[in-house]
Write a structure and sequence with these properties.
heterodimer, A: mainly alpha, 2 domains, two-stranded antiparallel ribbon, 13 helices, 73% helix, elongated, B: mainly alpha, 7 helices, 81% helix
Chain lengths: 318, 147
């Protein structure tokens, strides 16, 4: 029984270290990022808007008579009877056209035009997605992620310069997944409300990361001391390994689950988590809520229609 | 599928939070304390057993660990866990309605979002937090401008 527990706990610790390093490698390598599809890196409306603007600027360079077709379309659409003659000379070699004929011509031209445009667009899309555009996106993403890392590792006193490279390195190794999720969250936020929410969540995660790294370091030093003490005792009891493995497993699952929830956008959509966020905000606020400070009211007070009970003589309410 | 994963991960998160992540430093400190205390106790075990007639070998390492974890978490048991009663009431209301089945899960998430957003809008952050928040906003602005 003890052997099984021992093996399981050792396995847990080994798997944990492997997972941590895998996350860390993913975090730093832009080459590994480029193997992902674009949708994995950015699923934002911002990026899509940019794509469309680039399309439209490039479409003007396409070698089809964009303007000519458009003017013809315009003429057909708005032409009165008196202009009919001029137009059908162009299309129908002198024969007498009816309006139906012109309309069919128009449709034909229109469909041709759209086909050509769409094929050109597809070609452009492929080019953009494969080469230039992806590189640009990756560069932006790497720049952004560096900024986010700075933000996460900054201490509460902004002028404090004790933050060293080694410290950042091991915090990164231990919390790579969470950092990545915060990066993605920042990349996705667009509207004003979302920006506010991500700032709060980012601050929470920054605090959590500091706590967790301390916990990890303490756990590992404890493990090492435990194993060293085991060498010197006559009957080493390796059951204590299980507790360390359990603690490490719990921390790891907690980190992974929060990471997943932030990535999917589930975070804060829960009684418990909403309370957590609000509590964080209240703790970091200017006013002291516990001793008489008040928050502004969440909702405006409802207008209560007061029906005045008329009192009729004799104690009867009407 | 998404709803199921949402619920499942929420359960895992709450469970592990209660286990140790509310105060991870304290818990891991307790474990370390357990190891060290066990070592010292087993060092002095013969002396203690001779002088006071106590059987120290009964105390295994997990007893020491339990003592350590409990001792280091006493502070967080008494920690203030309060949020303004106004907000508390609103959140509890949403939770209650969701459990009764009067609103769907997606509606409940919307309500939670709105309540947290309103609190964030209405509260003034203190100095340190405000500096941090501004840093983050700058990062986001840069991101928006570059695209």
């Amino acid at each position: 029984m003890t052997n099984i527990i021992l093996i399981i706990s050792i396995l847990i610790i080994i798997i944990f270290t492997i997972l941590k390093f895998a996350d860390f490698l993913k975090l730093n390598d832009p080459e590994l990022l480029s193997h992902k599809s674009l949708d994995d890196i950015f699923v934002t409306s911002k990026i899509k808007k940019q794509l469309y603007s680039e399309y439209s600027s490039l479409i003007h360079k396409i070698d089809i008579d964009y303007k000519d077709i458009n003017t013809i379309r315009y003429k057909i659409y708005f032409a009165g009877d008196w202009e009919k003659d001029k137009i059908y000379d162009k299309f129908l070699d002198g024969s007498q056209p009816s309006w139906a004929d012109i309309a069919s011509k128009y449709e034909f031209i229109n469909s041709k035009f759209q086909e050509s445009i769409s094929t050109q667009c597809l070609l452009l899309q492929e080019e953009l997605l494969t080469n230039k555009f992806k590189e640009k996106l990756l560069k932006d993403y790497v720049l952004l992620s560096k900024d986010v890392d700075k933000f996460i590792f900054i201490s509460h006193k902004p002028n404090d310069s004790s933050y060293s490279k080694i410290k950042s390195r091991y915090t990164k190794v231990l919390n790579a997944g969470l950092i990545d999720s915060v990066r993605q969250k920042t990349a996705k936020s667009v509207s004003k409300n979302e920006v506010e929410e991500t700032t709060i969540i980012g601050m929470m995660i920054g605090k959590k990361i500091k706590k967790d790294t301390r916990a990890y370091i303490l756990l590992f030093t404890g493990l090492v001391i435990y194993l060293l003490l085991g060498l010197f005792t006559a009957q080493p009891n390796l059951l204590g390994l299980m507790f360390f493995a359990l603690a490490i497993l719990a921390l790891q699952t907690n980190q992974k689950v929060t990471e997943y929830r932030i990535r999917k956008g589930f975070y804060g959509t829960n009684y418990y988590e909403a309370r957590e966020i609000i509590q964080f905000v209240v703790e970091n606020s200017d006013e002291n809520f516990y001793s008489g400070g008040k928050i502004k009211k969440l909702m405006p007070e409802p207008e209560v229609l007061q029906e005045e009970a008329r009192c009729v003589e004799g104690g009867v309410f009407a | 599928m998404n709803n199921h994963m949402n619920k499942l991960t929420a359960v895992f998160k709450i469970a592990t939070d209660i286990l140790l992540v509310k105060n991870p430093v304290g818990t891991s400190m307790g474990l370390l304390f357990g190891v060290i205390a066990h070592g010292i106790a087993s060092l002095f075990a013969p002396v203690i057993e001779l002088t006071w007639a106590l059987r120290l070998s009964v105390l295994k390492i997990y007893h020491f660990m339990a003592i350590g974890v409990f001792g280091f978490n006493i502070k967080s048991l008494n920690a203030k866990n309060k949020i303004p009663p106004d907000v508390e009431e609103a959140i509890q209301m949403v939770d209650k309605l969701e459990k009764q089945g009067k609103i769907s899960m997606s509606q409940a998430t919307l309500y939670y979002r709105e309540i947290t957003n309103r609190v964030i809008e209405n509260v003034k952050l203190n100095n340190n937090a405000e500096i941090q928040a501004e840093l983050f906003r700058e990062i986001l602005k840069k991101q928006v401008e570059s695209t």
